[in-house]
Specification:
With 365 residues, the chain is mostly beta strands. The chain has one helix at residues 4-18; strands spanning 28-31, 38-41, 50-57, 60-68, 71-80, 86-92, 95-102, 108-115, 118-128, 131-139, 144-152, 158-165, 170-178, 181-187, 193-198, 204-211, 214-222, 233-238, 243-249, 255-262, 265-275, 278-286, 291-297, 303-310, 313-320, 325-332, 335-343, 346-354, 357-363. It contains 1 helix and 29 strands. The chain has a 29-stranded antiparallel β-sheet, covered by helices on one side. The two termini are 34 Å apart. The model is unreliable at 1-6, 8-13 and 15-48 (pLDDT under 50).
Length: 365
């Protein structure tokens, strides 16, 4: 999914410009373990991870708040813009990440993207009638970075996107659509191309990554029935290395087993155990039989600790203090020897320990 997920998101984002979807406050979402989709679940289920609260005034959405594990992770606010336009501001963890200007039909006119309060990219959208025909991307200095041209079929279905960067390098993406349903997409990349096919339910059937015109990696998705949203089995074949990874999932998208083969012979894998929808253990098999991971949660189902063991001996532990901070602890002969403190995956401080006492500290900027 490394490359195709970008194309899939882009395709449905473009459809969303013309066919906007309203999310109500009653819709709760759970993310698939494979990272492929979001699935509606009933309010009040214990294993819910994500939900949306929408503020509506006079029949119009004014703001949306996206929560994960009970914590606000993203917020979108809508304000009146100049000349009858709509200004949309998006925040992530309290920081402004995007400002968009929409027209009376709620189509994007422009978009500014921010990182840590700094403008990093600006996009302008151009239409012919009601159809988006061009997106122009500028860097933080206002210089042209890329120009995307959108081409449609006779029924206004998206057929191709031509992307030209500032150096004149051109890449293309092609879409096969039948009666509004995406059948196949093909993306040209700098280091290889990728093709993705879908079934009549919009689910991924297979995707193939090509390098130098030859198959490099193929991934196949198997579904138990037409009603299933998630694949029950995913096979990823690395043709260049003659390796295959097979993953088996529950109906809800949680991984149960993972096995790796070389030249058709099983080498190693992992088995996963759950309770009340929470992952409790990841145990190795084959060459990984010595490995074991244990997961601990609080009474609200929030992950508190992960322990990594080898042959039953504790090697490493990750302790979560909140949604953004955690501590990595290394052990030697069951004793702590190193603690590393992180915030948003950025290392802040290290402590070296001897006999349970901190003997040296190192700070990171």
């Amino acid at each position: 999914m490394r490359y195709s997920s970008i194309g899939i998101i882009a395709f449905w984002l473009l459809l969303g410009l013309f066919f906007p979807v309203t999310i109500t406050a009653q819709e709760l979402f759970r993310s698939n373990a494979a990272g492929m989709r979001l699935e509606p679940i009933a309010p009040g289920e214990r294993d819910q991870h994500r939900f949306v609260i929408q503020l509506v005034r006079n029949g119009e959405a004014k703001s949306e708040r996206f929560f994960e594990h009970g914590e606000l992770i993203r917020e979108t606010r809508r304000l009146p813009g100049p000349a009858g336009t709509l200004r949309e501001e998006e925040f992530s963890n309290g920081d402004l990440v995007a400002v968009r200007l929409l027209d009376a039909e709620e189509r994007f006119i422009s978009e500014e993207l921010f990182s840590e309060g700094t403008l990093v990219e600006r996009r302008e959208y151009r239409y012919r009638g009601k159809v988006l025909v061009e997106m122009v991307i500028f860097d933080a200095a206002g210089e042209l970075a890329r120009r995307d041209e959108f081409h449609y079929g006779p029924g206004r279905e998206l057929r191709a996107v031509r992307m030209v960067d500032s150096a004149g390098m051109t890449r293309n993406a092609y879409y096969s659509v039948l009666e509004g349903r995406l059948l196949e997409e093909y993306h040209e990349g700098l280091h290889g191309d990728i093709r993705v096919r879908y079934d009549e339910y919009g689910r991924t059937v297979d995707e193939v990554e090509y390098r130098a015109g030859a198959r490099a990696v193929s991934t196949y998705y198997v579904y138990d029935s037409s009603a299933d949203s998630f694949a029950s089995t995913i096979r990823e074949i690395d043709h260049e290395r003659d390796r295959e990874i097979v993953r088996i999932y529950t109906a809800g998208g949680d991984i149960l087993e993972e096995a790796e083969y070389h030249a058709g012979v099983f080498e190693r894998g992992f088995a996963y155990s759950y309770a009340n929808g929470l992952l409790l253990e990841r145990r190795g098999r084959g060459r990984s039989a010595a490995l074991q991971e244990l997961f601990d949660y609080d009474e609200d189902g929030e992950l508190q600790r992960v322990q990594y063991l080898r042959n039953g001996q504790l090697q490493r532990e990750r302790r979560y203090t909140n949604a953004h901070e955690y501590i990595d602890v290394l052990y030697r002969d069951s004793a702590e020897v190193l603690r590393s403190y992180y915030r948003d995956d950025r290392r802040l401080r290290e402590e070296v320990l001897q006999n349970g006492q901190v003997v040296r500290t190192r700070e990171f900027e």
